[in-house]
Amino acid sequence: MRITMVGSGYVGLVSGACLADFGHVVSCIDTDVKKVEALKAGKMPIFEPGLEELVAKNVRQQRLSFSTDLASAVEGAGAVFIAVGTPSRRGDGHADLSFVYEAARAIAAGLNGFTVIVTKSTVPVGTGDEVERIIREVRPDADISVVSNPEFLREGAAIGDFKRPDRIVLGVEDKRAEVVMTEIYRPLFLNHAPFVFTSRRTSELTKYAANAFLATKITFINEIADLCEQVGANVQDVARGIGLDQRIGSKFLHAGPGYGGSCFPKDTSALIKTAQDYGSPIRIVEMVAAVNDQRKRAMARKVLTACGGSVRGKTIAILGLTFKPNTDDMRDSPAISIITALQDAGAKINVFDPEGMDQARLVLNDLTFFYDPYSCCDKADALVIVTEWDAFRALDLDRLKELLNAPIMVDLRNIYDPEEMARQNFTYSDVGRGK
Ligand code: UGA
């Protein structure tokens, strides 16, 4: 099938490349001329393991192409996916849908024959209705069906998540669209991936409910971690002890510095707003968002305590800046709040991150950048691990002790063993491992 992907960001690019790999002919569109030129030259705008190779293979086999020309790409396409950004709207926390509606108008202009319009962007309940209204306003003659098909992939594991999903959620309002969507996802269907066919509004809400639930799970274990520190208990054992109960599940129970990224903060905020607008507030998610915001900055206090109560005039080495490993994404990363709080407390900041330093330059000031963990720690007064990159899991502790002014490590991802660190004479603090 010929498919058009409107928006070549994270979700659009990964989905486009994977759908091409399923055998469809996919045209990925973006309004950013530079991005499209770079993609044509084989350069990825984001860091995602395996993506460059997957794109190159499908371009070579002529199933994947990039263009700025939306109208031509829409003509003759069986399905047009909308995968543009839905950032938080400045000021009120609602999702900003201007890119989605702009895309709908542009798509309408090129329509020709029956076309399924699929919203893959994370969009609030009712957006599909509005997309349909806009298209019918621009092209009263259009033969379309608007479907909601939210994406559940994680950054850093995006290709695997797309190709081996836990489920595919499809909000379809008519049979013709159902046939087209089943055709698009046929390889997953044959692999027995579960399909959830539902109404468009239910599908839109399902995406927010999923992210809000995961954010709640993380925040729950983070608060249990705080309690563990006070009562001398171990949060990792608590997580294992509860996670083996299949009704709870072991995933998303890693305590840490608070969740970040391009999805959880913005999606919890948008869900909170929608629920308030409809007079049905989701107080538990309101609390989760507030607790998580406070937590990120509060992590700086751990560093202050480890440094004897003050970091004024001290140099702190930060290892890991991105909101999680295997991405260059800095959006809402806990590192931003932690570093800003440490700078406010008078610290100088050294940083190293394997992929995130270019993005970090755009959101943080007065950092000293290093290109390996050891030079980052040279003459620093303490070391803080903010992101659990694999490269930080087996650091040469003897070498670190020689380089650091004092052997102080604050491990916000619990990637070192407290007993081993004590044996190595490190002043070591972590998250929720009292005992
Ligand atoms: C998240 C969801 O996991 C995806 O299913 C969803 O498709 C995506 O948002 C989206 O809506 O686009 P992502 O933001 O890429 O994916 O990353 P996650 O792996 O979910 O991590 C989010 C944050 O939670 C990170 O800061 C991570 O460090 C933190 N986290 C995650 C924890 O602190 N503890 C955990 O146990 C798990």
UniProtKB/TrEMBL annotation:
Gene Ontology BP terms: polysaccharide biosynthetic process; UDP-glucuronate biosynthetic process
Keywords: NAD, Oxidoreductase
SMART domains the UniProt entry points to: UDPG_MGDP_dh_C
PROSITE patterns (alphabetical): PROKAR_LIPOPROTEIN
Residues that, per the record, bind NAD(+): D30, K35, T86, T122, E155, K266, R331
Positions of the catalytic residues: C263
Entry keyword tRNA-binding: no
Binding-site list for substrate: F152, L153, R154, E155, K207, F252, L253, H254, A255, G256, G260, K324
Catalytic reactions of this protein: UDP-alpha-D-glucose + 2 NAD(+) + H2O = UDP-alpha-D-glucuronate + 2 NADH + 3 H(+)
Pfam families for the chain: UDPG_MGDP_dh (PF00984), UDPG_MGDP_dh_C (PF03720), UDPG_MGDP_dh_N (PF03721)
Domain UDP-glucose/GDP-mannose dehydrogenase C-terminal: 317-418
Source organism, top-level taxon: Bacteria
InterPro entries recorded: 6-PGluconate_DH-like_C_sf, NAD(P)-bd_dom_sf, UDP-Glc/GDP-Man, UDP-Glc/GDP-Man_DH_C, UDP-Glc/GDP-Man_DH_C_sf, UDP-Glc/GDP-Man_DH_dimer, UDP-Glc/GDP-Man_DH_N, UDPglc_DH_bac
EC top class named in words: oxidoreductase
Pathway: Nucleotide-sugar biosynthesis; UDP-alpha-D-glucuronate biosynthesis; UDP-alpha-D-glucuronate from UDP-alpha-D-glucose: step 1/1
Gene Ontology molecular function: NAD binding; UDP-glucose 6-dehydrogenase activity
EC number(s) per entry: 1.1.1.22
Family: Belongs to the UDP-glucose/GDP-mannose dehydrogenase family.
NCBIfam families with a match to the protein in the record: NDP-sugDHase (TIGR03026)
Protein name according to UniProt: UDP-glucose 6-dehydrogenase
Upper lineage: Bacteria, Pseudomonadati, Pseudomonadota, Alphaproteobacteria, Hyphomicrobiales
